[in-house]
Amino acid sequence: MTITLDELIIENRELLVDCVVKDAIGQIPSYGQAPLRLTIERVERWLDTLAASIEQNDPDILEKYLVGVAGERRREGYAIMELHGIVHITERHLQELILTSGADEIEQNALRALLDAVTDAARMVLSVRYLLGVENR
User: Fold this and answer.
1) C-alpha pair distances (Å), 121 with each of 62, 84, 112, 117, 128
2) Taking the CA of residue 36 as centre, how many other CA atoms within 13 Å lie in the half-sphere pointing to its CB?
3) Which of 36, 124, 130, 131 is in the most buried spot, having the most CB atoms within 10 Å?
4) Where are the domains of the chain?
5) H helix or E strand, kind and range, residue 100
6) Stronger pLDDT, 73 or 101, i.e. the higher one
7) pTM value surpassing 0.70
């Protein structure tokens, strides 16, 4: 059984949204204070963009999205660690899905390697854009 990371995200989207939102509310104070619908919509957009970037093998999709999010959240007063928290929570839940995906060990290792690369890149883009205050205009 061969499954790609984007397929794993798409096929488990509803579960991922529920898990990421629940953990974000419980672990990141500002997410607990935000309206639930807003948090759900933000997580949905994040997962959809992540899947599209992977599926199209186009890191610019993810970077453009993250640049906009970093600027928006910075203006709203969110700390960079809150954004990194969402990436970390998503990464953790995707790692769990990889383990239960039915993929063999070699496929799981490849999925984990891609997940590591994508989430590391996301954290880097967020940090650079957030800290420097650079936004897509």
Assistant:
1) 9, 11, 14, 6, 11
2) 4
3) 130
4) 5-132
5) none
6) 101
7) yes
